[in-house]
Amino acid sequence: MNIDGVLSGGGIKGFALIGAYEEIESRGLRFVRMAATSAGSIVAAFIAAGYTSQEIYQLIDEVDMDLMLDTRKSLIPFSFFKWLSVYWKLGLYRGVEFEKWMTEKLAAKGLRTFSDLPPKTLRVIASDLSNGTMIVLPDDLEKYGISSNSFPIAKAIRMSCSIPYFFEPVRLRSITGINIIVDGGVLSNFPMWIFDREDERKVRPVLGISLSASEYEHKKHTIKNGIQLFAALFETMKDAHDSRYISKKHAKNIIFIPTEGILPIEFHLTDIQKQELFTIGKEHAKNFLNQWSY
After folding, report:
1. How far apart are CA 198 and CA 289, in angstroms?
2. What is the DSSP letter of 11?
3. Which 3 state secondary structure label does DSSP give 103?
4. Which of 33, 115, 184, 238 could form a disulfide with 4 if both were Cys (CB 3.0 to 4.6 A apart)?
5. pTM for this one?
6. How do residues 42-81 score in pLDDT, each as one tens digit?
7. Phi and psi for 175 in degrees, rounded to 5?
8. How many CB atoms lie within 10 A of CB 61?
């Protein structure tokens, strides 16, 4: 059966998304169109490319995270240089190796630009800090004077995954100058709304997968220092838009997966932690699909 899908962001916790997808895949459900943010955009891109759930797990499991966290070279001690990187380059890590890796894995399936996919197959969310607006890629690229068909899918994923201060933002050159683009989760971490827009005709069931306990529950933030303040600020920004949008009507079509205890940027997980996230995702998807009425 064909369905459309929405995947939330969540950093390294995306292993739970893969587990949920394995259960979905095993039931003969096939995603035709997908919308996603951040980590969800990685999984969605691989699904659109034709990778199976097990292949996606293996691809991400084998990633050399020390290579992906690509700092700029400097003779200055790292403990001091990393703060200079945030000040001057706006992020600790360049994100170049991540984009190269995405390019390589998508190219292995014949995907390079959005023209290699049927229209509307894959859309990812990013945030334009220069203009203070949300971007749906590739749909909104024409507003920047950029051809949507010729735009690299890997770069769109890189834009959607640029966690502020952690990865350097993407500098998008447009007809109006340089635009600073960061993680889509800043403005919409779970774009369930994308299939409800006036110009979007719902032609099949839409299934969402969100890395959160539920649409109503939200753990109270503890704010006793600057780091906790930033964490609470970012969490509030990424959840506010989507929490306001999601209603009971949408909640009945969303698999909620609680992933407390692991931070999105906790990239050096053990094999046991990865498998636990995968299993949690699979189990919650199984329980949901057993009673899903579409």
Report:
1. 28
2. G
3. helix
4. 33
5. 0.86
6. 999 999 999 999 999 999 998 887 776 656 565 454 554 4
7. -65, -15
8. 14
